[in-house]
Amino acid sequence: MATAIMTALASVFLPTQFTNSRRCFFNAYYTPLIKQRSSSFASKIRASSTAFVETKPLDPVVVEKEVSISKNILACPVCYEPLSWIGDRVLSVDCAGSSLHCGCCKKTYSGKETHLELTVASGSSKFDDSMPLATELFRLPLISFLYERGWRQNFIWGGFPGPEKEFELMKDYLQPGLGGNIIDASCGSGLFSRLFAKSGLFSHVVALDYSENMLRQCYEFIMQEENFPRENLILVRADISRLPFLSGSVDAVHAGAAIHCWPSPSAAVAEISRVLKPEGVFVATTFILDGPFSFFPLLGPLRQNMALAGNHIFLHERELEDICRACGLVGFTAIRNGRFVMFSARKPS
Ligand SMILES: C[S@@+](CC[C@H](N)C(=O)[O-])C[C@H]1O[C@@H](n2cnc3c(N)ncnc32)[C@H](O)[C@@H]1O
């Protein structure tokens, strides 16, 4: 049990280099676990806790919706009324630096060098919302730098299959939203936002995160890439619990490895439900801990203290389903591997 908890904490908080050094300490436990995981994931993953499904490449995805000219879905995070562009509307990576105006609040949102700044506190000069530790951690420049340089790769210890396989798996779940717009919520340094934009499967991609440094890192990765489809993506800084989008305007929301970092998973899923169109789809991955380990006596208080720091790495699959249902989403379905879960739910029509 102690090993399971250590693995959980390490996979969320430490980059590979650090956990590798711990590995010497836990070698006897980790080595067989890793071997077992990598071979078992190659052949099968657990679906909805019961059945097994193959992870062979999925059939080619058919884009059913016609790719349409992107509509402006941006809304004021204070009042949720539509935002209008001051000057030309630029729905691309180059929109950073543009400004938007809310006719209702009479508030102007000025863009930063790398992203649009659409938090409620945007424009305030003396106040900066400080968030729980799990959110603040990712605002640090060092963590943003390390994220795709070892930190994210480390999630394989918790059963994550790795970004390429995750992308293949989620394409199937995202099918109802293909051809429409997608929000990559809590995108980090944008590893999936960039894949979404390059795949051409969506009419428009919004890479959204609370961390200005993660967004800056995402911007830099984009600038380093030749022929990146910059017209297909915007970077937005916003809080997941106050999304700057019109209600019922979004075809798909993806949240990779993020729910456990959100200050309030239920407030966030409620916001996701608000912005989704009817039949819009929510797909997410996270760490869970259920089954026999969840009865370990010390887990309750540990879980409570972690939650106070804004970290929810010990959620159960049934809690995820419950949150979705409570926020008006239906058709919950999940696939699992170790502590990894990918689940989806949709807005009813
Ligand atoms: C572990 S990273 C996941 C990054 C990426 N989606 C992935 O799949 O690797 C979690 C992200 O959640 C973001 N986050 C934490 N709290 C947030 C909040 N309140 N609103 C928006 N994003 C938040 C962090 O800034 C961080 O980039």
What do these coordinates show?
The chain is α/β, with parallel strands linked by helices and 349 residues long. The protein has one domain: Vaccinia Virus protein VP39 (Rossmann fold). It has helices at 2-13, 16-43, 133-136, 141-151, 163-174, 191-199, 212-224, 265-275, 299-308, 317-326; strands at 45-47, 51-53, 83-86, 99-102, 107-110, 116-117, 181-185, 204-209, 233-237, 250-255, 276-287, 330-337, 340-346. The strands form two sheets. Strands 2-1-12-13-11-10-7-8-9-6 form a ten-stranded mixed sheet, sandwiched between helices. The protein is globular, with a radius of gyration of 20 Å. The N and C termini lie far apart (43 Å). The structure holds S-adenosylmethionine. S-adenosylmethionine (SAM) is lined by residues 131, 135, 138, 152, 186-188, 191-192, 209-211, 214, 239-240, 256-258, 261-263. The site of S-adenosylmethionine (SAM) has 21 residues, from helix 6. This is Methyltransferase type 11 domain-containing protein.
Instruction: Give the number of domains.
Output: 1
CATH fold label: Rossmann fold
- Helix run count: 10
Give the class from helix and strand content and strand pairing: alpha/beta
The ordered string of helix (H) and strand (E) elements is: HHEEEEEEHHHEHEHEEHEHHEE
What is the name of the CATH class? Answer: Alpha Beta
Low-confidence stretches: 1-69
CATH superfamily, by name, is Vaccinia Virus protein VP39
Major sheet details: 10 strands, mixed
Number of strands: 13
